[in-house]
Sequence to fold (660 residues):
Amino acid sequence: MRITHIVISGLLSMTLLLHNFCLAQENNVQPGVIVNIKDTTTTLKQIQEAMGISSHYPDSAINLLLTCREDSRITGFHYGALLSAFNLAKVYVHYDCGKIEDAMATLAPLPAQCRTEREMKLLPYIFNLMGNAENLVGKEDKALQYYMQAEKVDARYRTDSLNCMLYNNIGTCLMNNQRPSQSLYYFSKAEAIAEKGKYYSLYIYSLINKGEIYAAMKDYTTSEAVILKAIQIATAYKKGSDGHALALASLGMLYHRRDSSFQKAFTYLEQAVSPGMDVMTRSKLAILGNIALLKRRQGKTRESIRYYEEVLKLAQASGYRDIIQISRKNLARAYYSIGLYRNAFDYADLFMTLRDSIEAEKTIDNLNKLELQFRTALKDKELAENRLQLSLQERRIEKKNFWIIATISGALLLCVLLLLLYRNALHKRRLVSDRIQLLQHQQQIGRLKAMMEGEEKERKRLGRELHDGIGGMIAALKMGFSTLQEQYGMQRNKGYNDMMLLLDETGKEVRKTAHNLMPEMLSRLGLKDALEQYLTGNKSAWHPLHVELQAHGHMNDLPDPVQLAIYRTVQELVKNVVQHAKASQVLIQLNRDEDNVLSLMAEDDGIGFDQTETSQGIGLQNIKDRVNNLQGTLSIHSEKGGGTIIQIEYDLNKINTFDT
Fold:
């Protein structure tokens, strides 16, 4: 059983607990609408009640959240409508049979509706949930983009618990995409944050995920140790919780996978669903389903039927139609295998009936949506016709009254003309001022561009002189020493051999420096491969610093100035980390999204710095000049002891327009 969880967008009550603190200061009401504070408090309590029953009774939770959203719209409580929609989508994704299309339709308009500071704090959770929805349908690349958007928005607030969830979710995406080493990196980051912040539920899920990764890699010893640690944490702080049950179930399945032991697997699986364990319904269904599967593999089909029927009963009580379908199908097969064909036929018939019912409901939903679109179009048409009639009537009235107000209009027209002349003069003055500022800005960019191009030409010249001049001299010197070795038999002379080794190392350093100064591999290999070659070639010089590069999106058609700026910026960033940060790890991320925006992020776990106390060095100023040259944006987030995050963004559409 794969018990790897996409962490739900915040612990179920986490977002809701923020409401009571802010309620007295901000109600987010629509202008012109009077809202009773008691009504907003009641709405927030109802949302909290809906999320409290969502794991066991998703249908009831959905109805209650729909009511809260509609009431909030009527009363003008904007934040209540936004929060109701967010939690409604959460139930669709995680509890109500995976209604991903409904969830995405509900979530899509929410980011644009977040306007106040209070609503903006909800935005990273919205992006995180959108990533979860895409991940559940196998669209890992799109899910990663949403998770990175959530991380980018949350960089302003630095919410540790959300960062922990995001790292868990990114790790899950990478694991589903068969990238275990990278997923382990993010699970370990989530584990560290959860342990430091004492987020024990997230801590347990992170450990379970790591255990599953190690098990998939067939490192059963490490997997067992990690899952046992999860059980230890759960026993100490979250005994009987959903995470505790999942850890026990994961350990049981590990023993079956490793030792082919049914008995040890049943011991832990049955303990996971024993009385006293507060297991979420969805998790309990998965665990019982695995017990039934193992019983069937063991040849105990009648016992497996008992568990399948328990799963079916629980799924029917909770309204999980996907589990009901699977259970009926499994029961039909089980009864057929022991010769009870009548029972098998009954369950197969129920399975097909439910399948047809679900398909019919989907068809009805689609028809309702089409009907709604049709009615909306009719109303829009009727509204347009009314506006046309009103416009014609207004024109007739204007024509009829024209001569009556001619004198007054003449006087007003004269005043308007004078006012327009005055405003036109002001406008021209502003245009001249704006043009002067634009020319100054273009001149400044031209100077910076010329300076960068001159610097790059000087780097290439120095690189060629090092490679062709000093490099050639070292090669000739090496040939001369080799001739002396043959003439005087100095093969066993230790001093001579040491000098030859030193000469070899000097030649290598000269070639490496020449290649770094003259990055011709950019045009030969492209940005991504050139960066990987640069980082790999300098790996030994930076030891023990570990530098990891992650690139997403198309990088092959980037403009040459952008490729060169990114390459030089990465060189400068890594050099600064090596010289100042005292870090053990650096993560460099390159991402090109659908809007043609290229972002570069460098994150290290070094000592950080106080930006108000530390003056900017030459390296940082060089980076700022390169960013300004290409009209990009630069942001730095750092604090003492907390590492440093540097984010750079280039709008490639603007760069192409400017170059043209």
Summary: Confidence is low (pLDDT under 50) at residues 1-36. The longest strand covers residues 585-592. Residues 406-488 form the longest helix (83 residues). The radius of gyration is 33 Å.
